[in-house]
Specification:
The chain is an alpha+beta fold and 550 residues long. It has 8 helices and 32 strands.
Length: 550
């Protein structure tokens, strides 16, 4: 009988163990309490059964066979109770939450994203197509599908999605073929050797360069990374798209405005960067053109967008076929002699076209074009020098005609001798009449020489262009704002190539004229300059007197 009672107790404990083993996590705290209660109640039932069997046996004194029958009936009842007992926890259709942590890319546009497993729609896969998200967990649903619990880079929950709408990837996402061109505009971004963030290049060392993005990665962190190469196929690493701007193979248009000279033949000039030919440098060789803009092409060359002086677009040209210059072009050594034949042209101080003088004042003179400029505006300009080597300015070649080197009738050396002798004679006379001596001045000598050449054309106390003496002094390089001037002019037969003889001849001529004599003897002047010019057997001379006003 004791053996039977032990078997009954064991069966009951097994029954209790079966029930406690299926308690769900969701009902964990509540179920623990109910198990304790159920165990107590079951033990009491077992003890009652055992007591009932024992008591029945002792009182009735039935045989062993009768007792075994009674035990079998009791066990049948227990089994019936066990099979009739309901499950205490039901498993949900989606199954248990399984921690995951992998990265997935949304690869389909045709799946719903769920808020729960009652199939309440939260979003749609088309809203996240191509994005990399993190699957923190997953569920193996009884419908046969796996559902990921997705989060974005900001740890915001996206929802549940069928795994068939995704594909497993690394955090940087899949390699995406690209082929675009990018220009590095921000030097504060490094390029990376890999996505473990091992540095490859400093962004500042690559700034403003154009690269080809052969591929890209849409990283889980929200950034796009380009895999960049130079025009030689050298890989420079992975670079955040935030550091670049999209461009084209030729690069961005860059304002320029410089002038270039075409210095090489046989270069093609392009209509576009699909390399449709427009012209050839042979047609523009030696000309100055304006580069309004330029492109730093991915192929390593710079291409200039060129215009002529009529603002007509010439095309795109590799800068290797040009040299940088200025609007007037490069200085070209010349050396020819010309005669100024036209009135009304300007002599220019520079190629900003600051006025220096008028062609009227050098008309009929033979001058030397020591150099010339082939200007962007289409004109040729001569840099003119007179017979004493004084620079007279830049003049448009169309105001001139070809001439020949003139015969020297009074040399530069003898002109200087004449100036020295004339100053001696003037100051000797001034000492005689007891007035201050005059001081010679190189600028006044230059102005007087201008005038000596001008009076051959117009023998008057004004210049051929109508301006007065001070205009010549200013052209020679003096500030005339506080100056007054007087002038003596004369011409005579040239005695010989002898400066001293020329000075004495003209001094006597002026002293024999009361008006000219008064200038020589006047105590109002402070400075003086002398000029001489011989042409056609005649000598032309000038004295320029200057008073400085306080």
């Amino acid at each position: 009988m004791k053996k039977v009672k032990w078997l009954i107790g064991l069966s009951m404990l097994s029954f209790l163990g079966f029930n406690s083993g299926i308690v769900s996590n969701a009902e964990e705290s509540q179920t623990k309490e109910s198990v304790v209660v159920e165990q107590k109640e079951t033990m009491m039932s077992t003890e009652s059964s055992e007591a009932l069997i024992s008591d029945s046996t002792s009182k009735s004194g039935e045989t062993t066979d009768q007792t075994a029958e009674t035990v079998e009936e009791t066990m049948s009842e227990i089994r019936a109770i066990k099979s009739a007992a309901p499950n205490q926890v039901k498993k949900t259709p989606e199954g248990d939450y399984i921690s995951d942590g992998s990265y997935v890319q949304v690869a389909s546009k045709n799946y719903d994203i769920w808020s729960n497993f009652s199939w309440e729609k939260r979003s749609h896969s088309s809203n996240y197509y191509g994005q990399t998200l993190k699957a923190k967990g997953r569920y193996e649903h009884e419908n046969g599908a796996t559902y990921y619990s997705l989060y974005n880079k900001d740890d915001k929950w996206i929802g549940y999605i069928n795994a068939k709408a995704t594909k497993k990837i690394d955090a940087q996402g899949n390699y995406i073929s690209d082929g675009s061109y990018v220009k590095i505009k921000n030097g504060n971004y490094s390029t990376w050797q890999n996505f473990n963030w091992q540095k490859k290049y400093s962004g500042n060392s690559l700034k403003n360069q154009t690269f080809k993005a052969r591929g890209r990665y849409e990283h889980f962190n929200g950034s796009t990374y380009y895999s960049i190469y130079d025009n030689q196929g050298k890989w420079y690493g992975y670079l955040s798209a935030a550091a670049v701007s999209k461009t084209t193979a030729q690069g961005d248009y860059i304002n320029d405005g410089s002038y270039v000279k075409i210095v090489k033949k046989n270069y093609d000039i392009w209509q576009n960067f699909s390399w449709q030919k427009k012209s050839n440098t042979n047609s523009y060789y030696g000309k100055v053109l304006k580069a309004k803009g330029r492109y730093k092409h991915f192929n390593g060359s710079t291409y200039l967008s060129l215009y002529d002086n009529k603002n007509k677009w010439v095309g795109y040209l590799n800068s290797n076929a040009t040299s940088k210059t200025v609007a007037e072009g490069d200085y070209i050594k010349d050396g020819r002699y010309i005669e100024v034949t036209k009135n009304g042209y300007s002599l220019w101080q520079n190629f900003k076209f600051d006025f220096r003088g008028s062609s009227d004042n050098v008309q009929t003179q033979i001058l030397q074009a020591r150099g010339r400029y082939e200007h962007f505006n289409g004109s040729t300009y001569y840099s003119l020098y007179d017979d004493l080597g004084f620079w007279r300015g830049y003049i448009n070649a169309s105001a001139t005609k070809k001439s020949y080197k003139p015969k020297v009738e009074l040399s530069e050396k003898e002109i200087k001798a004449a100036q020295k002798e004339m100053l001696r004679l003037v100051n000797k006379e001034r000492r005689r009449v007891k007035v201050n001596e005059l001081q010679g001045d190189s600028i006044l000598d230059k102005a007087a020489n201008y005038r000596a050449r001008e009076i051959k054309k117009t023998f008057a106390h004004h210049r051929p262009d109508g301006n007065d003496i001070l205009d010549a002094v200013e052209e020679a390089g003096a500030d005339v704002s506080s100056l007054g001037a007087g002038e003596n002019i004369a011409y005579n037969q040239l005695p010989k190539n002898d400066g001293k003889a020329v000075a004495n001849l003209l001094f006597k001529q002026w002293m024999n004229s009361p008006g000219h004599k008064r200038n020589i003897q006047s105590n109002m002047y402070d400075y003086v300059g002398f000029g001489f010019y011989a042409s056609g057997g005649r000598i032309y001379g000038t004295q320029v007197f200057i008073v400085v006003y306080e």
